[in-house]
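Please, structure for the following, as tokens.
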Amino acid sequence: MGRTMGKYEKRKPVKPQRKLSKRQEFVRNLDSVYIIALILTLYMLFFRVVVVIGPSMYDTLIQGDRLVLLSSFLYTDPQQGDIIVASKESFDNGECFVKRVIAVEGQTVDIDFDAGIVYVDGCALEEDYIHTPTTRPEGVQFPLTVEDGHIFVMGDNRDSSLDSRSPQIGLVDKREIVGKAIFILSPGNNGGKETPRYDRIGWIG
């Protein structure tokens, strides 16, 4: 039979919890503040959140999309096809813009504006991501070889994108890159023109 507690059997006394002094409470709270500050610092170093403004990346990205960026602190080697956010002091007072990397340093870009075809190192790009074809020249002369330490970028909505085709932006210095877009955190509504599509939330391929 299992052991049962008799009527007069004494229970073990429960030790009262020791109350922390004000100094101990302060130290414990300070530790929590340090941990939160460390997490926020790491987040700001490695990641950023930005909002898409304008139609230049439609409909890969939609106006109002909130994007998580891999910060330039970690993102140091842009690759063709990456979607990046950059800022040029010489353009729009340093406001951020989002574009796709079309070519990196040493590669040569050429564009057939009649056919709307973009060539990199003589090979036509398969651009299934574009919303409108590349039929609008903006002033830069082609073919163009990308300088060391720079990238050539364009928006996916070519008819509504000011990008490296224009002398206003031109080649983007890699030091001007804010980060790489890696995740759609919340969907935009294209300035109220569309219903947000929550199925778009997720990693940017």
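The chain has a mean pLDDT of 88. The chain is about 10% helix and 30% strand.
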